[in-house]
Amino acid sequence: MTRFNQIQEIKRRLFAMRNGIVADTIRKGGLEYKMVFGLNLPQIVEIASGIEPSQALAEEFWADSRTRESMLLAPMIYPREAMTRERASEMLRESITTEVTDILCHRLLRHLPFAMDVAVDAVTSSDEMERYGGFRLMFNLLYSRPADIRPFVEAELSADCALTRPVCQSMLDEIKFMLDEED
User: Fold this and answer.
1) Fewer CB in a 10 Å sphere around the end CB: N or C, the chain?
2) Could you name the domain of life of the organism this protein comes from (predicted)?
3) Which pLDDT score, from 0 to 100, does residue 22 have?
């Protein structure tokens, strides 16, 4: 099976599981994808579980930023050992929605030995979406590094960014709970 045929087969599976009601809801929510199949996350995970990890295949799906499910599938099939720090940072910058960013961080980036370095680089960016990605990645690392993460969270909360505020407030609450601090 050629790579093109594999992509075609995966797209057929996505199409077969499409949900018009969910797709319409996503579109009405303002997301500007050209193609939305309306699959929920467990369905995408199910499809990904049947695909052998492949950097080339993952990169092709990631490059398909017109299709929601392609961008969500890519981090699930990207082999962790093939990911570099530079590419991880690029993908975080290229992520176009909070949903894609959340999946990228949870399914792929948090497992990398350089995840904290990528997160620190991202949270110091001037781009709000990139900072959001950095904090979502830090959230996945919170339990192992609360003291390292706290100063970044507190600094971001003082910036009062509408995109990052909810995740940072949740992180700060969790840090206080972990450290048994009172408000």
Assistant:
1) C
2) Bacteria
3) 80
Tell me: the pLDDT tens digits for 17-62?
Answer: 888 888 887 777 777 788 888 889 999 999 999 999 999 999 999 9
Does a structural domain hold residue 132?
no
Give the domain range for residue 22.
Answer: 1-81
- Residue ranges of the alpha helices (H) in 113-164? 115-123, 128-141, 146-159
**Cα separation of 148 and 17, whole Å?**
42
Residue 90 belongs to some domain of the structure: no
Token pair for residue 164? 């990052």
Cα-Cα-Cα-Cα dihedral sign, residues 147, 152, 156, 159:
positive
pLDDT digits (tens, 9 = 90+) for 143-154: 999 999 999 999
E strand intervals along 75-163: none
pTM, 2 dp: 0.90
Distance, CA of 59 to CA of 116 (rounded, Å)? 23
